[in-house]
Write a structure and sequence with these properties.
Length: about 425
């Protein structure tokens, strides 16, 4: 031992052969990339290695080190390195959970990006039923590649992003088996799961566990975490801390981007919304399933928000709401369709079935919503929020990854009508900046 360094005594010949094999592999890779000048550099290094005369292990280390350093510096400064990144969204309405990541990567000259919407199926009695593919519905500035033209095994992208974590464990939909997290992991150097929703509040740690321990988080090399607190919780539940990457949520990025851009609403909405206070009404699957009076209450809410001539209503049903009703509440289907017809028949109401809710978020003056990702995202706008199915008292005993205590709730005299009138007057007592 000298100068604190421990040298292992071994014969120099095997080490020299290993170096020659390694440089030969580097040369082959550079040849495949047609990096002629870099190939010449490796030829020079190989020739020196093959002709090297050494008196021992330390001698070969001293001679190889500057040669390797020279090649490494040349490659770093002269060889263009690009990463291939594949994004595998399935529902276009969930593309917002990836979009800002894609935009950043797509603007990076060191990245080659592919957006490959994947097929999925509705499920009935636990089996695949109807086939769906939404590749034609993505924004015009997103270059979509059909899944039949992108062989993930042959491409073996450096990074793959997914937002469906369930594989075959979801009751309502299932992506094609080829795109299960378990299978994609075999065809990429890094599988990244980015949640399609925003984490909010939960009654207990077991409720969070149902989202933390799913195939997407288990097989992923990286899981995008909304906050340090979420990372801590997921680590406590058994996920490797090293795979948790705190980066916020692209869904908040999408809201901010929509707020900053001009709002081009569908032409069929213009006359119905023009000159009115616009309320966004967001309905979720969970509220429909858990609330026996959901249909009746929905009809009452619609009437309250449309009977006033100064108001306009945009109804945003969950993208899978109709499919879930068919599968799990078939008796609701006809009344649900009648509710939709009633809204479309009104002179001041529309239904938002677009790919995402961001136009509706941007043009609306307030939101009335079941507890959902959209409700949580809406907080970024700074506009009033009425939560239909939670109470502020619930937050005191909840585990909150996202704090929405400044929203309004149906308690302490607050009603849908009172909230409507408050917005019409331009009032928002809970917002210090209003």
């Amino acid at each position: 031992m000298a100068d604190g360094i421990v040298y292992i005594r071994e014969k120099p010949e095997p080490m020299l052969k290993n170096c020659i094999d390694a440089v030969t592999s580097i040369k082959a890779l550079l040849q495949s990339e047609q990096e002629v000048e870099a190939v010449n550099k490796t030829d020079h290094l190989l020739e020196n290695l093959k002709n090297m005369k050494t008196s021992g292990f330390q001698d070969i280390c001293n001679k190889i080190k500057p040669e390797i350093k020279t090649l490494k510096l040349f490659i770093k400064e002269n060889v263009k390195t690009q990463y291939e990144i594949a994004f595998f969204p399935y529902k276009v309405s969930m593309w917002d959970s990836m979009e800002s990541i894609w935009r950043a990567a797509n603007n990076d000259p060191d990245c080659i990006c592919y957006v490959v919407p994947i097929p999925y199926y509705s499920k009935k009695d636990g089996s695949k039923a109807e086939y769906f593919y939404e590749g034609s519905l993505y924004p015009d500035d997103v270059p979509v590649v059909h899944y039949s033209l992108y062989d993930v095994q042959k491409h073996h992208p450096d990074i793959v992003y997914i937002h469906n974590p369930y594989d075959n464990n979801n009751y309502v939909t299932q992506v094609d088996e080829k795109y299960f997290a378990e299978n994609l992991k075999k065809s990429t150097d890094m599988l990244v799961y980015v949640p399609y929703f925003v984490y909010g509040s939960y009654r207990n740690i077991d409720e969070i566990k149902t989202m933390a321990i799913v195939p997407g988080t288990v097989y992923a090399d990286r899981v995008i975490a909304q906050s340090e607190y979420q990372k801590k919780l997921f680590t406590k539940l058994g996920l490797n801390e090293g795979k948790m990457l705190v980066a916020g949520s692209p869904k908040f990025d999408a809201v901010l981007r929509a707020e900053e851009q001009p709002h081009e609403i569908p032409k069929e909405w213009e006359e119905k919304l023009k000159g009115k206070k616009i309320f966004l009404w967001n309905t979720t699957i969970r509220a429909m399933l858990e609330n026996p009076g959901w249909l009746e209450k929905s009809g009452q809410l619609m009437d309250i928000l449309t009977q006033c001539p100064e108001c306009a209503l945009i109804w945003r049903p969950h993208p899978l709401l109709k499919e879930t009703i068919k599968l799990m509440r078939p008796a609701y289907l006809e009344p649900y369709l009648n509710l939709a017809k009633g809204i479309m028949a009104k002179s001041n109401a529309v239904i938002d079935l677009t790919g995402n809710a961001y136009i509706s978020m941007a043009v609306s003056d307030a939101i009335v919503s079941d507890y959902s990702s959209i409700m949580l995202q809406y907080a970024v706008t700074g506009k009033p929020i009425l939560c239909l199915d939670r109470k502020s008292s619930m937050l005191k005993n909840s585990i909150c990854i996202f704090d929405y205590s400044e929203d309004y709730f149906l308690e302490n005299g607050m009603t849908i009508k009172r909230f409507r009138d408050m917005v019409l007057k331009g009032e928002d007592p809970k917002n210090a900046n209003a």
